[in-house]
Amino acid sequence: MDKDNIYQDYADFIFKYLLTLTNNSQIAEELTQKTFYQAIKSIDNFHDNGKAKFSTWLCSIAKNVWLQEINREKKKEKLTESLSNEEKRFPNLEEEYFRNEEKINFFKQVHQLNNKQREIMFLRLLGDLSFKEIGLIFGETENWARVTFYRAKQQIRKGDKTDGS
């Protein structure tokens, strides 16, 4: 086997074979290069004993190179996904700090409200109750609960502006 002409003789054939596997000419070109690199490294293992053609041997190398590339891509995707999940599990400490500061500030503001307003805020925001349900708890109308909640919100906003200046 003439090592010098292997690439010229078989490159187009291997490229087309890999193109059918990958459906991507850029990847097929890259894998063709890798195939010939592997073939040259192990050409002494090819025995021309009439059982297998050289082109078949090259195709088997090309297929292995392609399968290795698929496995490498799968591992890369798993790693990327794993790192992405890690970021979701461990939020940015600075963001967490400011979120906690905002919560503390909010609860300080709510603490300044009168008992009814505070309870309505807690029932609405933490208890996730409707205005109708809140009205029933206080023996008032749905509209009363809505207006009281709105006024409490306005009071918190006013307090937030004076504290934040």
List the helices and strands and how they pair.
Blueprint (H helix, E strand, L loop, with lengths): L5 H17 L2 H17 L12 H36 L3 H19 L3 H12 L4 H8 L3 H23 L1
Rounded average pLDDT: 84
The total tally of domains equals 2
Biggest beta sheet attributes: none
Overall shape: it is rod-shaped
Residues in β-strands, percent: under 5%
Domain RNA polymerase sigma-70 region: 6-75
InterPro entries: RNA_pol_sigma-70-like (IPR039425), RNA_pol_sigma-70_dom (IPR014284), RNA_pol_sigma70_r2 (IPR007627), RNA_pol_sigma70_r4_t2 (IPR013249), RNA_pol_sigma_r2 (IPR013325), RNA_pol_sigma_r3/r4-like (IPR013324), WH-like_DNA-bd_sf (IPR036388)
Protein name: RNA polymerase sigma factor SigY
Keywords: DNA-binding, Sigma factor, Transcription, Transcription regulation
Describe the fold and architecture:
- By secondary structure, the protein is mainly α.
- It has two domains: about 90 residues, Orthogonal Bundle (Rna Polymerase Sigma Factor, Chain: A); about 70 residues, Winged helix-like DNA-binding domain superfamily/Winged helix DNA-binding domain (Arc Repressor Mutant, subunit A, Orthogonal Bundle).
- It has seven helices and no strands.
- The mean pLDDT is about 85.
